[in-house]
Amino acid sequence: MTAFAASPAPTTAYPITSEAILKLVLSSLDDDKAEDIVTIDLQGKTAMADHMVICSGRSTRQVSAIAQKLLDRLKESFRLSARSEGKEVGDWVLIDTGDVVVHIFRPEVREFYQLEKMWQASGDSAPS
User: How far is CA 30 from CA 9, 12, 24, 106, 113, in A?
Assistant: First the structure.
């Protein structure tokens, strides 16, 4: 899948690949000390996105801060306004860029929902 972001000239657009978005997401999460980052390749498994990234923050405050910084970087780098849910509470934040879906959890909430097990085939884990 390819997303398009407007360039400074309103009549042109440049392609943004899911790989470029994924690279920025992983870099942002690493910079902000997200823990246990897992990337799941969804290509061929679902049409909803190309990649899913799941990670943890140590507290509600860190989860919300990681999410906000990621949203800021997506907007700054790609002029991409991703949809997000849960940032105010900070237990589980979902960020949907279109091509990459990011879940940022507190560890207890992540353990409860176990999204990795739902999406990964056996032997398909790819921790980053």
Answer: 32, 32, 10, 16, 23
Is position 87 within any domain?
A: yes
How far is the C-alpha of 11 from the C-alpha of 7, rounded, in Å?
Answer: 8
Number of domains comprising the chain = 1
d(CA 123, CA 31): 28
Query: Please, are residues 128 and 39 in contact by the beta-carbon 8 Å criterion?
Result: yes
Domain annotation covers residue 71: yes
Q: Which two structure tokens, joined as six digits, stand for 123?
A: 């032997």
Is 63 a domain residue? yes
Residue range(s) defining the domain that contains residue 100? 16-119
81: in domain? yes
Helix, strand, coil percent content, the chain, rounded in steps of 5:
35, 30, 35
Structure confidence by residue, pLDDT tens digits, 13-26:
557 899 999 999 99
Q: Is the pTM of this model over 0.90?
A: no
Do β-strands 2-6 and 13-17 pair in parallel, antiparallel, or remain unpaired?
antiparallel
